[in-house]
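pinned: reference chain
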Amino acid sequence: MEDFECDDFEKTLKVIVVGNGNAGKTSMTTRYAKGRYTGTYKKTIGVDFMEKTVELRDLGETINLMIWDTAGQEEFDTLTSRYYKGAGAVIYVFSTVDRASFDDLPKWRRKVEEECGQICSVLVQNKIDLEDDAKMTRDEVEDMADFLSMRLYRSCVQDNINVGEVFRYLCRRFLKSGDDGDEMVHAVTDISTLSQTVKPADISRYPPSPEPHTKREISDISDIESDRTSTAAPSPTSQTCLGKSFPPSPPTIINRECDSDSGDDAAPDSPRRSRK
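pinned: its structure tokens
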């Protein structure tokens, strides 16, 4: 009988995408898995499920992603929380133009940790093309990321800014956690898939913060090679948010993505205003 080693088996990662309704979760997962933008808001009932295979060539690794896009409305809480189990990574999404989606982030983290424990996590500020109408300041966003101890990505799904980078970052964190044993990582059943890559849009309009952030790495234009995880405590300003304490009281989509370089992708023209 032939002997098998761990490396003979494909790695599979279940990723859940959580956050308030209308934050852009479905648009984000559809953009990444299908390579297209859905401009019309359609409420997710329960969960949507998509698949994609990611090749990290510099690491010589391939990961099969199972992406679960969950409903953000409270009426679906009981249903959606059942689908958190077995997740190895989570994306927390909030909207630049929706203050409640920002304030509710600690609540979402508690829900995920109740079902999954400590898993690979990332914070995404979506709809940065609507920054003129932002309901929170840059400092508040960075303080929230510090409070949650998560890497922050600022994204625009319509123009494909920092969408693929978010998922590739989680893949790398997943692999690193498995090697180091410093985080609880769950794997789920193997699923084989194919691929499609979409060119990202212009990221020049969204430069990094002018001053370096000493407590935690902020990824406006991502450096996905860095896998540092912050353990710093939140600044005093991160303790409150609008006067509230932190935290406040299928058909299968088949795709393959090749990560041909270390992560930064090139880009087209100026972003359009988006509703997703």
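why pinned: Confidence is low (pLDDT under 50) at residues 179-245, 247-255, 260-276. The longest helix spans residues 164-180.
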